[in-house]
Design brief:
alpha/beta, 25 helices
């Protein structure tokens, strides 16, 4: 196998030009085989094989630098930099990350995971290079989907002022996660299909080659080719900004890509290479269903179908069903997503109410302010977004929604630990950053029934509201406990004495297990479903603090700024003789891995919590003094 010749960075340069095609096919077979077992981002990586090969053949790593926007497409890069064995543990706890990681390899120069960041980071590396008097090449690779993010344009605006080399490769496959939307996509489509320009260019060049001094004329035309482009391609957006545009070029032609990279390296300014690629290339199921194979679970290679068929609905499914019912009941209900109609469960709503569905592309900041405008106009917007992506729009939530107290509902999916995507995708900060904003109201359902009730209630409030729910199967436990949602009020599920467990959202399920274990050991234990994180139920906290020796708050969020911190502050103000134990995620970034394993490692699984509660209770009853036990 040709891959056997590649043990470290730059080994690809030992491969002959005649073997490039075979190596690309080997890489695709390798990725399909490995990802079918581990799961991961397949479609984007299959589409970037030749592009990545060309970069590694044209650059000298790790001295030269490649910044991968988002990083979904970096698997081939990892393979060509000596991390072949790492694919056995891809996205597993303690194993290789599915994203670029500086701590993993010197060839990963910048950690990524969210979109539209690579040009800004690349500019920083360019300036650092120039200030240090170095000569290395800096390349930022960005997808066309990421160009819908405003940060990319802020960086392009800055890049246009450069008088030094900086290469931007636009990996254009007409997809982000789902199919691209908006004016940027239409503009790139114009360039992709500008055969008139390409044919004219080739015809003129070929004709001039056959006349005296034709070569000289061709060279002059090449220098002024932007003028030719302006005759045929409308806008020439990048050139008008002062960024040299090269392309479009076939991103699956290694030698063509190498040629254009060589040309780009000679430029004394920012240059953009427009490479056309196909998401999922080389694997028929991924070519037919690129969105489904963006991030895939383990699958059967022959059919492309998931290896494990899901029978239970997940929380996203529940949200999807509720949204269609809300849309049917009220014509003012509108739905907004940032390039994730499938992932957030809005596909059915889009199909049923297309005029009330808005996919704004990868642009979370715009999504939130757009929703604020809809609300100001009398609509009832629901923004469906992953927790880790909503943090990109903090200022818009504060400035455009909450200051005006506009009735925007945030349906926050993937709240808490999400597992295999790691630090950049764990939804463990939303309670903290949302709780800091006046006029925001935050709820978390204990099960699938309560998710339905809370979404309906949030819509009826007429104020900014967030409902956060986890990834995975929707729990149907405690079905008998289904009291109506009341503003700022918790739900007391079991009331006893000694220990009170006050759990938020997904942690109610864990609290049920903890309570059972405590009772088996002989402890008396109350259990409260917090329901509201903001405002907290102060009356409940006061009553529990007065009637129990130990309060235990449980949340799937970082401790700093979380629910437990607010309960402690209020209890301290009451001066009650009750100890408080906070069960939360430590002040740290949580790496990738199976969620159950991460629970254990973080000490928030049922067994670990039970042990911590017993230890805290013994301590509380031994000294008889009030206090706070850190989680």
């Amino acid at each position: 196998m040709l891959l056997d010749k590649i043990a470290k960075e730059n080994d690809i340069k030992q491969i002959s030009k005649e073997e490039y095609h075979d190596l690309a096919e080997e890489i695709r077979r390798f990725l399909i085989e490995k990802i079918s077992v581990t799961g991961g981002h397949l479609g984007s990586n299959l589409g970037a094989v030749e592009l990545t090969m060309a970069l590694h053949l044209s650059l000298d790593l790790p001295d030269d630098k490649i910044i991968w926007d988002v990083g979904h497409q970096s698997y081939t890069h990892k393979l060509l930099t000596g991390r072949r064995d790492g694919f056995e543990t891809l996205r597993k706890y303690g194993g290789m990350s599915g994203f670029p990681k500086r701590k993993e390899s010197a060839c990963d120069c910048f950690d990524t995971g969210h979109s539209s960041t690579s040009i800004s980071a690349g500019l920083g590396l360019v300036k650092a290079r120039d200030l240090a008097g170095e000569r290395r090449t800096i390349v930022s690779v960005i997808g066309d989907g990421s160009l819908t993010g405003g940060m990319a344009y802020e960086a392009l605006n800055n890049a246009s002022q450069l008088r030094t080399n900086f290469i931007i490769i636009l990996n254009d496959n007409n997809m982000s996660i789902s199919e691209n939307v908006g004016g940027v996509s239409k503009y790139l489509n114009t360039i992709r299909t500008a055969n008139g320009y390409l044919d004219l260019k080739e015809g003129v060049y070929n004709a001039l080659q056959n006349i005296p001094r034709g070569d000289s004329i061709v060279k002059n035309i090449r220098r002024a080719k932007s003028s030719v482009k302006h005759l045929v391609i409308p806008g020439m957006f990048f050139e008008d900004m002062g960024i040299t545009y090269l392309g479009p070029v076939d991103g699956h032609d290694v030698e063509a890509m190498m040629k254009v990279i060589r040309e780009a390296k000679r430029c004394k300014n920012a240059v953009l290479i427009h490479a056309i690629t196909q998401k999922g290339r080389g694997y028929a199921p991924a070519e037919r269903h690129p969105a489904r194979f963006h991030g895939t679970e383990p699958f059967d290679i022959e059919t492309g179908l998931p290896s494990h068929h899901r029978t239970e609905p997940n929380y996203t499914d529940v949200f999807s069903t509720v949204m269609t019912k809300l849309g049917a009941r009220d014509e003012k209900v509108v739905a907004i997503t940032a390039a994730m109609p499938d992932g957030t469960g809005l596909k059915r709503f889009r199909n049923m109410y297309p005029e009330r569905f808005f996919d704004v592309g990868i642009a979370e900041q715009h999504a939130v302010t757009f929703a604020a405008g809809l609300a100001a106009g009398g609509m009832k917007p629901i923004v469906a977004v992953y927790s880790s992506f909503l943090q990109r729009a903090y200022d818009q939530i504060l400035h455009d929604v909450c200051i005006q107290n506009l009735p925007v509902v945030f349906a926050i999916d993937r709240a808490g630990l999400v597992g295999s995507d790691g630090e950049t995708h764990q939804g463990i900060f939303d309670l903290s950053y949302l709780s800091s904003i006046p006029n925001m109201h935050i709820m978390a359902p204990k099960n699938k029934w309560e998710l339905s009730d809370m979404l309906k209630y949030a819509l009826s409030l007429g104020v900014p509201a967030a409902v956060r729910y986890p990834r995975g199967n929707a729990w149907d436990g405690l079905k008998a406990f289904r009291k109506p949602v009341e503003f700022g009020r918790s739900e007391i599920l079991y009331e006893e004495e000694d220990i009170a467990l006050i759990a938020v959202g997904s942690m109610v399920r864990t609290a049920v297990q903890v309570r059972s274990a405590l009772k088996e050991t002989g402890y008396s234990c109350s259990l409260v479903n917090a329901r509201f994180v903001k405002p907290i139920d102060e009356e409940m906290v006061r009553e529990m603090a007065q009637s129990h020796k130990l309060l235990v708050t449980m949340e799937e969020n970082v401790a700093s700024g979380g629910f437990g911190e607010k309960v402690r502050e209020y209890a301290d103000a009451l001066h009650v003789s009750c100890h408080i134990l906070t069960i939360a995620i430590p002040d740290a970034y949580v790496e990738h891995g199976n969620v159950s394993l991460l629970y254990q490692e973080l000490g928030i699984d049922a067994d670990s919590v039970t042990k911590r509660v017993i230890t805290a209770y013994i301590s509380a009853t031994a000294d008889g003094q009030s206090g706070v036990d850190a989680g």
